[in-house]
Amino acid sequence: MKNYNVSEIKQLVNNAKSALVTIPQLNVDSVGAGLALALALKKAGKDVKVFCPQKTDQNYSKLSGLELLSDTFVSSDLVVSLNYPLDQIEQVSYNDDGGRLNLVVKTKTNSPKIDNDKIIINNDSSSADVCFMLGDETALGANTSITSKGNWVFVSPSNINKTWAKATLIDPDAPFSEIFTFLLPMLGLELDIDSGKDLLIGLRVATQSFSVNVSPETFEAGAVCLRATQPLDTAPNVPVEPMPIQNIEKSGSFTPGTNKANPTPVV
After folding, report:
1. 128 in the Ramachandran plot: left (φ > 0), alpha (ψ -120 to 50) or beta?
2. How far apart are alpha carbons 152 and 68 in whole angstroms?
3. pTM of the predicted model, to two decimals?
4. What is the C-alpha to C-alpha distance for residues 98 and 16, in angstroms, rounded to an integer?
5. How far apart are CA 216 and CA 202, in angstroms?
6. Pick from 139, 248, 259, 252: which is nearest to 206 by CA?
7. Strand partners, 70
8. Cβ count near 230 (within 10 Å)
9. pLDDT per residue over 24-78, tens digit each?
10. Integer Cα distance of 267 and 88 in angstroms
11. Which of 43, 112, 156, 207 has its CA 20 to 30 A from that of 186?
């Protein structure tokens, strides 16, 4: 079992009501890990979005959570900031003036007037309270600038330093799916049937069905994911047959090491 230092990441997640998961490069490993993270965050009550600039195809159809994935990024939030002492503000409200929104800031008695040069309008705010970047953001092209705002967590198998990241997790010995198999429980997030399945598919593709680039922790991660996908034994004294990997992926699979469909699952 790997033991990452996740104190900073956990604090960011605990304080967040919304989350953005960004996947710069499209592959089964990173998308499976990103969707597993998104599903776990959503189950924890977070409002979650997943952004990948490339569209998925039928080779990703076995992954759960694809409805959360978007290939476009739009930051439409509007933030109005006042360079004014907060303790001098009595109340903030809004009203509908014939279909026009008015924001009303009421200052305390004898407080100075809020001049126009004290009002800052920003319509390019961060889209979430905590944002995860799975890999090098330069692959995002024109959307690379999204890292300029927000609380970003950078996760990568490559040893790269990102100055914009509030927290960083690097593991050069593991694919994304292995990293997140251990990371999710450390963050207090549940690994359930859907997230476990996504990570298991990502692991199998990244390691060519556990035949290359593996370590003891890789097999341990596979066991953790497989265990998470097993049906719950809700009836006392009733044995439950383990669900094989073929059934977890329903029908079809991936050719080991590629994103191509394979009609016969390979274990």
Report:
1. beta
2. 19
3. 0.72
4. 35
5. 17
6. 259
7. 51
8. 14
9. 999 999 999 999 999 999 999 999 999 999 999 999 999 999 999 999 886 655 6
10. 66
11. 207
Q: What is the pLDDT of residues 108-130, one digit of tens each?
A: 998 898 888 888 766 555 579 99
Interatomic CA distance for residues 12 and 130, integer angstroms? 6
Give the sign of the dihedral formed by CA 238, CA 239, CA 242, CA 243: negative
Phi–psi pair at 238, nearest 5 degrees: -110, 115
| Helical ranges in the chain per DSSP H | 7-14, 28-43, 176-186, 193-206, 216-228, 245-248
For 193, the token pair is 């049937």
Long-range contacts, 214-217 (Cβ 8 Å, 24+): 215/173, 215/174, 217/1, 217/2, 217/173, 217/174, 217/178, 217/182
Cβ atoms of 21 and 51 within 8 Å: the answer is yes
Tokens of 255: 């050719």
Domain borders along the chain are 7-74+126-232+243-262, 79-122
Q: 221 and 182 in contact (C-beta within 8 Å)?
A: yes
Q: How much is the average pLDDT of 230-250?
A: 57
Q: And the tokens for 86?
A: 């907060």
Mean predicted confidence (pLDDT) in 246-256: 46
| E strand spans, the chain | 18-22, 47-51, 69-70, 79-82, 89-97, 100-107, 119-122, 130-134, 152-156, 165-170, 253-254, 261-262
Pull the structure tokens for residue 52: 């990948």
Buried b (16+ CB within 10 A) or exposed e, 46-65: bebbbbbbeebeebbebbbb
Give the dihedral sign, CA 12/189/249/155. Answer: positive
CATH 1.10.3630.10 assigned to 7-74+126-232+243-262: no
